[in-house]
Amino acid sequence: MIVALAGGVGGAKLAQGLALALPAGDLTVVANTADDFDLYGLRICPDLDTVLYTLAGLADPVQGWGIADDTFHTLGAIARYGREPWFRLGDQDFATHVLRTERLRQGATLTQVIAEFAAALGVQTRLLPMTDDPVATFVDTPEGRLGFQDYFVARRQADDVLGVVFAGADAARLPIGVAAAMAEAELIVICPSNPIVSIGPILAVPGLRQALLAARAPVVAVSPIVGGKALKGPADRMLATLGHEVSAAGVASLYAPDGLVDGLVIDVQDRALATRIESLGMRVLVTPTIMGGAEDRRRLAEETLGFGRTLATENPSAPLAAGEVGA
Ligand code: FO1
Predict the structure, then answer these.
(1) Which atom belonging to ligand 1 lies closest to the Cα atom of 8?
(2) How much is the pTM?
(3) Of the N and C termini of the chain, which has fewer Cβ atoms inside 10 Å?
(4) For residue range 25-74, what is the model confidence (pLDDT) as tens digits?
């Protein structure tokens, strides 16, 4: 069994590739929930939904979030009441939020609700929230502390991020099954999601980091920074304003402490960084990492799985078999 940690769009793409590359039911995805928030009385879980819709083949192929060919009549009607429709919730997407909110009010956990949705949509991957407890990301900016979606969507990531807070993380508990899945896994994959605000909150849930460190399986991350730029979203600017190098090597140094990660997959554009990244104590696989459609996703997933298998079995001095490894 393979466990993947994922944020939104980039994480969802690799999760889909892994689901395509593995036998049905062999994948568990743990998704970030610190972007979750309430709007119009409904509980919105953007990263979980992005992974769910992507695995179900429903995701909008252009923006990566929301449902393909959705319409926005409900949001238009909300705007008639004078409410600014700043967060683009489609009509079909609304159904997910309405039913989730109903189930949560009935006392179901988010883990149960997502499992019900996944079953209804024919998704065979086990999709788990990082916690059933409330955790909320806030970003500190020159304008003050902002809620995550205020920063990300309403203000279009225009503010410099000077600090990040995961409110509630200290008291959050891992859902049943996450620690066991990590202990049993053959490989743990950290998807190419923002290391600070997508993977950061997952690692902040007490017990998760310890489970990663204790896992027998190798841990392989895929860099979301290619050629010094984020593939999507503000990760590059966030790394810069938080004092990190904006490169795959900067991502490597975030994941290097305590030997958290055993291997990093970097793009061919970043080949020159491989030796420096390996000096941080992890192996490197150099391969094209920019994912378009399902074929790219599956290929990157297969190469990541092959790299992980090599790390699990290799004698450190032996030549690596999976793709083009090292400088
Ligand atoms: N991202 C945007 O940039 N603008 C939106 O209007 C927007 C709406 C939206 C609706 C549902 C959903 O599941 C996700 C949505 N996202 C939107 C994406 C999302 O807010 C962010 O990509 C994540 O929170 C960051 O991973």
Answers:
(1) 26
(2) 0.95
(3) C
(4) 999 999 999 999 999 999 999 999 999 999 999 999 999 999 999 999 99
